[in-house]
Every structure is written in C-alpha cells, then in structure tokens.
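Ticket #4471: structure output looks truncated?

Reporter: J.K.
Steps to reproduce: submitted the chain below (256 residues) through the standard prediction queue, then opened the result file.
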Amino acid sequence: MKRKWIVPGIVLLLMVAAALFPELFAKAEYFLGYAVCSQTPDQSFFAGLHQLPMSARCLGFFAGAFMVELGLIVSDDRNALWPSLPVSLALLFFVGLWVLDGINTSLADMQAFHLYPSSNSAHLVSALLGGTGAAFLMAPFFNSMVWSEAKEGVVFDGLFGVAVFLALDAIFALASIGGGTAVLWALATFSSLGLLATFTLVAAMALVVLLRKNRTFARWSDLLWLLLASLGITVLFVVGVYFLKRVGMRSLPPRW
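Returned output as attached by the reporter:
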C-alpha cells in the first residue's frame, strides 16, 4: 500500500471504531466540540438518545474542509494556482452561503426577521459547501508556502476537483440526514478529525512564516515535525478555549 493512503486508512479505521464503540470516542469529541462549537441541541443531530458532539453547522464545515485536506494528501497535489475566476467566485459563494446561514440562524433565534426557516438540513448543507469552499481556496496558499517544488497549475484541476468534492458533500449530507446511529457516530468522528486537521494546517502555515521555512519541504515526511508541532498548538488552543468557556460561561458540554 502506498504511503499516501496511510492517513485515509487511519481515518477510516477510526470511523469504523466509532461506529462500533461510540462511547470510547464520545468524551473526547464532546470536549473538542465544546471548545469551538455552540453545541445547541436543537441545531444538532442526535444518534439515538445522544446528541452529536458538534452542531449541524460545525459538523458540515469541518467535514467539508477535511475532504479537501485529505484530497491534498491522496492526490499529492502541489499546484499553487486558484481555479478560473468563475470557479473561484463559486467557491467564495459557497463560503458566503455558510455565513448567510449563520446570520439567518441568529436572526431566527432572536425571533427577528429571517430569510428562511432554520433547519439542521440547511445548516448541514450550507456548512459542507462553506467548508469545501474555504479549504479549496486555502489549498493554493498552503502549496505555495510549503512545497519547494510547488507547481504553476490549478489546484485539483479546478472545476473537476470542485465537482468531485461536491459529490462527496452530497454523500455526507444524505448519510447524516438519513443514517442510523452507527453511521452518525462515524460521520461525527470524521468531522472531529477535520476540526483537528483544519486548525493544524492553519497553525502549520503560520509556523512556516514565523520560522521562515517557506518552500523548504519536498515531501510530506519532511513536513511531519512541523505538523506535529502544529497539532500540539491546536490541542493547547482547544484546551485553553475549553477552560475559558467553562469559567466564563459556566456551561458544560453534552455527555454520553
């Protein structure tokens, strides 16, 4: 098996384990979700009697982003150019839909005028699109900053790549809305891993700039130490926000 499939293989194994033994993953995922997500019960999916660790909006956003991030690893895409202007504008539109849904949800919660009824399906779909759009647009920046041999091509072949990720978004949405308990916990774990991956990649880009390591990495294995350091920063950030929220808001995350 090629090395590029190791990370997706680990992700798949964790998803299967979470589907079979959700109680082993629930506490850690509730902890992660509490740090970055509202975890509002009426804006979250439930697996049986248990609320998922993140609201539908957070679930979708980090899942959509994680699909693109895994795509970078599997395809070993080193292209550093954005897609054509129409495709880039479409990706920005996806991010805008996610923002709009958040505003609409806030207005609905305040019982003020809002454009459409708030629903978990709308939250999930807009967030999947937003996460995909944001990560797709971030990918060229990552490639141009990190790789010593970044290519002057369009990331993920532009429109074709967008179509592939939109298809994956649709599968995730259908599975989330119609899936049973085991499926929902597997998807929740995928999204939790996406949360860690997204924050880790953002931290890695910041470290590349701070350490003046721009375009000095040839392989993913060369990048491993930086990713581990960035993961450590992400964990510290999550722990810090968790305790700040506990002290400031005096609230607790959902429990198994």
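Triage note (M.O.): checked the attachment and the full token line is present. The radius of gyration is 18 Å.
Status: closed, working as intended.
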